[in-house]
Write a structure and sequence with these properties.
Blueprint lengths: L1 E6 L2 E6 L12 H12 L2 H4 L2 H37 L5 H9 L2 H30 L8 H18 L1 H30 L23 H16 L4 H5 L6 H30 L19 H8 L5 H33 L17 H16 L7 H11 L1 H22 L16 H15 L4 H4 L5 H8 L1 H16 L15
Antiparallel strand pairs: 1-2
Length: 494
């Protein structure tokens, strides 16, 4: 016996025997914080110092603004498609429907693999962070504990994941707001620690150190820092009211993230000289010289390092939590579409794709273990292969949106049917495509311009591209798929 529930014109089916469908339990606040939680993390708390050191405060701001524009257009493209067709497969399914099934296959597996590797990365990071408090406890113990915690949050229900991510993200957002408030008080001399006003923003080569090339060099790092915003598209399939919630969440996400990043970078640039060597030293093993920690210390907050360590730990757990959630949903979708083994379609009583969740956890754990044995070379290659995966996913969003619009028009549909219409079309997705390509291909441009071409550096940096192409060609050849004709593009919403 089957029951059918209609919600926002999207049919969700459940079976009395074995359930193979997810449940719509995520609210707008969950969606907003999922994207913020997937984006704001070590890229801001730690890597921001490097961008200011390399490009100057003005150069870093310019890079974040350019990347912000790219992300804005990507998110509006995703919002238009996800609010009209709110499915868990998101951009991998859209790519298969509107461009080519082979490309959708490659995008889906690429994005799943990316999230499994990020899970492994966050497990490694959690162990490093815990050494700050308990240096004698083996790191693998903490990684195992945190993996069990993340798995537990995900296996109960999608609402359990949504709530945990909401509170993880609240901690990060609160930290940034406090940081901005303290920074402004210091700049204007109201709080101790700084009396130079905006001097650091103009001293020496500032605000633009190294000119255009330096902005380009940090643009790649900045782009990676923004990755994670696309997670809201995957969560669309489990949103309570996707037609309203997706556009609302995406509009809030962009402006909040851009505001947080730009204000934080501006304050760091004013309070810490780009020449300060500490800006290059902030990493997971040296939280004490994170730009955020340095500013709090200058303000006279003695507990800054311990507090920032705790915040960064929540960031790492948040990123691992989101990666496991997204990875399991993408894998479940691939199984639903016949692009992965059928057993991965199994869903438990809480509406969680438990088989896909377990497999993603196991792969993430195995990748993590490669960092513990040998010299870590395998792990380093895996991470580099995953490095381009985010850009490939973004590229698929912008390209697919162009085809989505063309097919919509070719089939005589009325644009008033769309719950959300992306602004600046087609300029937006075209600009996003160009910027994505620039960032992706320029990941290690230094390997090409030296006296001698660094072939090993090129291989390590771009290993993700041949893997993606292999996935595309394997499906193309075995299934003999072709580009989807505009008149045949599938706009079904079930």
């Amino acid at each position: 016996m089957q029951n059918t529930v209609r919600k926002s014109d999207v049919v969700i089916q459940t079976s009395g025997t074995e359930k193979e469908h997810l449940e719509r339990k995520l609210k707008t606040r969950h969606l907003t914080m999922i994207a913020i939680g997937g984006t704001i993390g070590t890229g801001l708390f730690l890597a921001s110092g490097t961008t200011i050191h390399d490009a100057g405060p003005g150069g870093a701001l310019a890079a974040y603004l350019i990347a912000g524009i790219m992300v804005y257009f990507l998110m509006t493209s995703l919002a238009e498609m996800a609010s009209y067709i709110p499915i868990t497969g998101s951009f991998s399914t859209y790519t298969a429907r509107f461009v080519d099934p082979a490309l959708g296959f490659a995008v889906g597996w690429n994005y799943w693999y990316n999230n499994a590797i990020i899970l492994a990365l966050e497990l490694s990071a959690s162990a490093l962070i815990m050494k700050y408090w308990l240096p004698d406890v083996p790191g693998i113990v903490w990684s195992a504990i945190f993996l069990a915690l993340i798995f537990g949050l995900n296996v109960l229900s999608v609402k359990g994941y949504g709530e945990s991510e909401f509170w993880f993200s609240i901690i990060k957002v609160a930290t940034i707001i406090i940081f901005i408030a303290v920074g402004v008080l210091m700049i204007f001399g109201i709080m101790n620690g700084h009396t130079g006003g905006f001097d650091n923003f103009t001293k020496g080569e500032a605000p633009f150190k190294g000119g255009l090339l330096s902005i380009f060099s940090v643009f790649m790092v900045v782009g990676f820092a923004f990755q994670g915003t696309e997670m809201v598209g995957v969560a669309a399939g489990e949103s309570e009211n996707p037609e309203k919630n997706i556009p609302k969440a995406i509009k809030q996400i962009f402006w909040r993230i851009l505001l947080f990043y730009v204000l934080a970078i501006f304050i760091i640039g004013c309070l810490i000289s780009y020449k300060d060597p500490n800006l290059l030293s902030g990493d997971l093993e040296n939280i004490a010289v994170s730009p955020f920690t340095l500013v709090f210390k200058h303000a006279g907050l003695a507990f800054a390092a311990a507090a920032m360590n705790a915040v960064i730990l929540t960031s790492v757990l948040s990123a691992g939590n989101s990666s496991l959630y997204v990875g399991s949903r993408v894998l479940w979708t691939l199984a639903e579409e016949g692009k992965a083994p059928a057993f991965l379609k199994k869903v438990n009583k809480g509406g969680v794709p438990v088989s896909a969740l377990i497999l993603t956890t196991l792969v993430g754990m195995l990748c993590f273990l490669t960092s513990l044995f040998g010299d870590g070379t395998v792990y380093s290659w895996l991470l580099n292969a995953a490095g381009l995966a985010g850009y490939l996913s973004w590229l698929s969003i912008s390209v697919t949106h162009i085809r989505f619009r063309k097919a919509f028009k070719a089939q005589g549909k009325d644009f008033n049917e769309l719950p959300y219409v992306a602004k600046w079309f087609p300029l937006g997705p075209i600009l996003a495509t160009v910027l994505c390509l620039v960032a992706m291909l320029g990941t290690n441009y230094g390997a090409f311009i030296g006296v001698k071409v660094d072939w090993y550096g090129i291989a390590v940096s771009y290993i993700g591209l041949p893997l993606f192409i292999m996935g595309y060609l394997s499906y193309k050849i075995t299934k003999k798929s072709k580009m989807v004709p505009l008149q045949e593009a599938d706009f079904s919403r079930e």
